[in-house]
Amino acid sequence: MQKLWIGIIVLLGATALILSFLFRTYYQIEGDTLKIVCGFLFKQEVDIKKIRKIEKTDNPISSPALSVRDRIEIYYDKYDSVIISPERQTEFIQILKLINKNISTNL
Residue 49: CB partners within 8 Å, gap ≥ 6? Predict the structure, then answer.
């Protein structure tokens, strides 16, 4: 009986983690900062002024992106990048380019 309770607790924990990724993944622009949140485990801030390039990608690497096919990779600083999948990519990129006109795009 004790093993059953342990299994239920593990299953509920895994379900909570998956649901947090599904319902708590978002990208928010606040001033010159892009805030990326994925579940309750992943939070990142990117200075929009440091973004160099944005490209479409089909890289399957784990990332704070709910879509598997419709992703963009944002390159910033010297070697850093993050893969995300905003719902309205074109509008999202236009807003980023309003803040940083030096962003190059290859879409």
Answer: 32, 99, 100
- Distance, in Å, from the CA atom of 98 to the CA atom of 7, rounded to the nearest integer, reads 50
| Contact assessment for residue 103 and residue 54, using Cβ atoms and an 8 Å cutoff | yes
Give the residue among 75, 62, 80 at the shortest CA–CA distance from 25: 62
Residues 67 and 60: their CA atoms lie apart, in Å, by 10
Please check the confidence at residue 40 and state whether its pLDDT lies above 80: yes
Q: How far apart are CA 31 and CA 72, in angstroms?
A: 21
Give residue 57's Cα distance to chain centre: 13
Give the pLDDT confidence score for residue 89 in this predicted structure: 93
At 5-34, the pLDDT tens digits run 888 899 998 888 888 777 889 999 999 999
